[in-house]
Amino acid sequence: MQTLTQVQFALGRLRTSPLSAVIHPPYRALRTGLAAMIMAMLVGLGQATAHDFKKGDLSIDHPTATPTAPGQPHGAIFIEKLKNSGAKDDQLIAARSGISKSMEVHRMSMDKGVMAMREIPGVTIPARGAVSMARGSKEGYHLMLMNLNRPLKEGEKFPVTLIFKNAGEVTVEIEVEKRSGAEHGHHTGSHKSGAAQGHKH
Ligand SMILES: [Cu+2]
Fold it and tell me: Degrees (nearest 5) of the Cα angle 13, 14, 16?
């Protein structure tokens, strides 16, 4: 609380000194930098809106699922970014959810001009690095909800527990969202062909 008050005070001072900024250009840059830093801190305080999750050294940034049509057996989950601030590699090795019978870690790739996907042992998040599991990313990583109990409706949220080799388990909230544009079309096509070929369990 005290920190917030001080930050507000600092921001107030920054705003009320336009003249000095004109007279002393070097200070202006300094003040702009400070203001940006303070704004970043304030944004950090409102974590509920950011939709990212933390576990140990890992951050899980914006996990989403694509809506599914009635009768569609499987669903796909994407994570904008998995970041690792630690000194050791970690790996997303499994996941579980009450919304499907099981979950698998998948990778989508082109095989002789045909898009296919297969189960992989895990997705490595390099030490002091990051990996994308974003929709339409070239890596093609995603989590598959195998045999959904019900369709995924746009706008809904549901919990999924991610299981990491080192960091352990963390439950995140998945947002079901549709994306417009080529990225989405590409992806939907991919999963139809992949599901037809590779998801007979
Ligand atoms: Cu898949």
Answer: 65
Amino acid identity of 46?
G
| pLDDT tens for the chain, residues 1 to 201 | 444 434 444 444 444 444 443 444 445 554 555 555 555 444 444 344 458 999 999 999 999 999 999 999 999 999 999 999 999 999 999 999 999 999 999 999 988 889 899 999 999 999 999 999 999 999 999 999 999 999 999 999 999 999 999 999 999 999 999 874 334 434 444 444 333 333 434
Distance 146 CA to ligand 1 centre (A): 9
pTM of the complete model: 0.66
> Coil, strand, or helix at residue 20?
helix
Question: How far does the centroid of ligand 1 lie from the alpha carbon of residue 75, in Å?
Answer: 8
